[in-house]
Design goal:
Helix content is 34%, strand content 20%. The chain is of the alpha/beta class and 261 residues long. It folds into 2 domains: 37 residues, no CATH class; 163 residues, Vaccinia Virus protein VP39 (Rossmann fold, 3-Layer(aba) Sandwich). Helix 3 packs parallel to helix 4 and helix 6 packs across helix 8. The N and C termini lie far apart (80 Å). 30% of the residues are buried. The C terminus is likely disordered. This is SAM-dependent methyltransferase. Keywords: Methyltransferase, Transferase.
């Protein structure tokens, strides 16, 4: 299916009836030959935009999959690149494809909702993974991304404009989400992948609540729709630098007015 190297319909069906983690373990060897893999033109456009925002030292690819986003980080980060995913199969593929050029690459198996890092990164990116989280999980996910960024660091990811109801793509995604909801209602474990649940307005609101300063910029490489809105945006959420406490001047007294002897 998709290409001679891609998964068969039967393999996709087995994946869809598994958990998210095990399903991607099964799909990993052929994932790069499916439409689910972020296309290279989008990765290149994000890398170009991030170069204008940088420079960055240490970068993290959240839910890195087979490592396509690691190539972006290798182009914009100077010191280190880390990929994190909870699928061992996807990480195995990412490990084999990691190039020798650029900063050193580390791969970590963990849950994006419980990151095993302190504030160690200047840049966190994610490509095509946020549809695997339910809307109610976004606050935890964004709080985790905020916690691993150094003050002033950025969390960046591309968002595609939703298709119009008059287009076949709209009904295809609507049908896909409906099938997934029926599947999860009657089959366990659930497989979370909802394309239409990830809405830009909701995302911006939750990023603001997590403590980010958020802006978007058009990726003009993909043009604009008839109404002038961009087809693809890059969301850039910046962790606000912590305010520095004012140093007490000579003769300053404690806030309670007491005087130390």
């Amino acid at each position: 299916m998709f290409s001679p190297e891609g998964p068969s319909l039967r393999e996709l069906a087995v994946q869809a009836l598994s958990s998210v983690e095990h399903g991607y373990d099964l799909l990993a060897p052929k994932f790069d030959h499916t439409p689910f893999r972020t296309p290279d033109p989008l990765l290149d456009a994000v890398a170009t935009a991030l170069r204008r925002i940088g420079p960055f030292d240490d970068g993290l690819d959240l839910c890195c999959g087979t490592g396509a986003g690691l190539d972006v980080l290798s182009r914009v980060c100077r010191t280190s690149v880390t990929g994190l995913d909870f699928s061992a199969g996807m990480l195995d593929v990412a490990r084999r494809r990691a190039g020798a050029d650029g900063p050193p690459v580390s791969l970590v198996r963990a849950d994006a909702r419980a990151l095993p890092f302190g504030a160690a990164f200047d840049l966190v990116v994610s490509f095509g993974a946020l549809g695997h989280f339910l809307p109610r999980e976004l606050p935890v996910l964004f709080a985790q991304a905020h916690s691993v960024l150094r003050p002033g660091g950025s969390f960046a990811f591309p968002v595609l404009a939703p298709p119009r109801p008059s287009t076949p793509a709209y009904w295809t995604l609507l049908g896909f989400d409906a099938v997934m909801r029926v599947r999860n209602a009657v089959w366990r474990p659930p497989f979370v992948m909802y394309y239409r649940a990830f809405r830009l307005g909701d995302v911006q609101r939750e990023l603001d609540r997590a403590g980010f300063e958020t802006r978007t910029q058009a990726l003009e490489e993909f043009g604009r729709r008839d109404d002038g809105s961009p087809r693809v945006r890059l969301v850039v959420a910046r962790r606000v630098p912590d305010p520095r406490p004012l140093s007490p001047g000579p003769g300053a007294q404690p806030a309670d007015g007491s005087v130390n002897s």
